[in-house]
Records
---
Amino acid sequence: MIGKLNHIAIAVPNIKEAAEQYKNIFGAKVSDPVEQPDHGVTTVFIDLGNTKIELLEVLGEGSPIQNFIDKNPKGGMHHICLEVNDINTAIDKLNTHEVSITGTGKPKIGAHGKPVVFLHPKSCNGTLIELEEV
């Protein structure tokens, strides 16, 4: 059902400083910040060739990563994103295995403009997993 690792997401307290570190110290190709108001975050993607790192910063009140940043003020790994060919087929299969999908359980459009869902860490060995349709 799952395909490639799409990205690893790191929540950061200051996305500009974090992006500059990856660009200036590590020499990585870094995107411009993009506000994702539907998700309550600002994102930056770092292209590693075979995968990406997504930097996440709190955007507005009620951001879903605010509690994470409160508990981890210097930031940290937030989730991993795995690719699936068909998000609805993946959801159907997960529901038959009682894997908890966060929110409404329905796909939303993610930062890449593709349908995504998040699987609750309690159902996935303590790791928040994002599935993205490719």
Note: The chain has a mean pLDDT of 97.
---
Amino acid sequence: MATSNDIKKGLCIEYSNDIFKVIEFLHVKPGKGPAFVRTKLKSVTNGKVIDNTFSAGHKIDEVKVITRKFQYLYDDENGFHFMNNEDFSQLYLDKEMIENSNLMKAGEEVTIILKEADETPLSAELPQSVYLEVVEADPGVKGNTATNALKNAIVETGARVMVPLFIEAGDKIKVSTEDGSYLERVKE
């Protein structure tokens, strides 16, 4: 059993009858009073983020996890189907287990976190960014270029992305999977 001193970014722990991944942590040693660890935890089952403070030396239940690369195949009304890149076995995940799933396109490689004990899937993580083609873009408003003006665009997966005025249908763009924001236009 680990203690709060062993907390590091990426560690998965069992807390409040759920499994959480440590996103941020800070060891604090105030001048007065005992030391503690301030953490930001993200649930791997539902994606909810909570802030929690552990006292120094507090016992935590570490969960052993493994990550594997899977290829996104297709989706149906309930969830997504993936194929293991090593043994070609298939895996099914519910729609709630993946954030910004509207940015996934067929053939995309996704990292799936599995519980080591029984290899049950806990969550899936998209790459930091994806390259998508714009299929439809609103017309830009002329004379509105003094500031960073944005317009709506629909990409090949059906997701809506706010893009700069110069982006047109047919352009390829790089999109952040964390918040679904435009990063840059991709030159081919």
Note: The chain has a mean pLDDT of 85.
---
Amino acid sequence: MSDIPKVFAYVFEGNATARAIPVDQALHHLPGGSGTAFTWVHLDRASGDTPKLLEMAGLDRFVIEALTADETRPRCTVHGDGVLLNLRGVNLNPGAEPEDMISIRFWIEEIRVISVGLRPLSATGDMLDAMERQQAPATPGSLVAGYAVRLADRAEPTVAKLNERIDVLEEQTLDEKKVVERGQLANVRRSAIVLRRYMFPQRDALSTLEIEDMKWLVDRDRSRLREAAERVTRLGEELDAIRDRAQVVHDQIMDRRAETMNRQMLILSIVAALFLPLGMVTGLLGVNVGGIPGADNPWAFEILCAVLVVVGAAQVWLFKRIGLF
């Protein structure tokens, strides 16, 4: 991820090639300007120069604030002749949590695309690699649609790993000898919930862009946007399934704990029931008052022990007869 530049600009001339140009020059490729197909400018939101560069590009205050906002959810908004599109991708940076999704914001016009991001996204690197292989997009719509597809592609392995983790936990619940760690289950549920929070709004944003009447969106671009929206929908449905399966595993864990506790309480109750009459008899014989039977009989203790054994055996037989154990 470290090799993805934070700021760059390319010009696309419609022949599947892209040429790097200075950012200042790219920002002045306004509609009706240079006659090139379109330009793509990517800026770093953490840089203090970004708002000035956006003003240099001729963007109004509404667009600048949307591109530089601290927090945002996926959305698509038509503004004049352009479109504001906010998307999110899984965080595949080293040491980061994938569910800590990274935001990327686009301002899309007929011959210019401006994107703003804070942290590097693998989808950006995928786009740059495709451009190096002479597979550059031909239109702004193609660029955004390709980016959206790559965001979905990068999210699929993360969702697949969550599926694998929940599969392992489900297998452990079926094996009574294995103990399911509730911490692992909680992590899976949290990841699924956080990822799902952005998947369905992203689907809506892509679907909205697909149906917008923008002349720079051709049929092929709309088809790819539809494909990206369908992939995001499928990922969201899988995350729903993972969340539901995690709830089932949690219920199974609680049922197993409740069953174990009930079994232990049953054992304790049987033991208490066994010793209750025995304790009552020995307690009565142990009171320090006159008239205790057998006090002068040398065989009284042996007789008492035999009586207690018989009473205990009778209780065991009775408990088995009524099905306590």
Note: The first helix runs from residue 23 to 27.
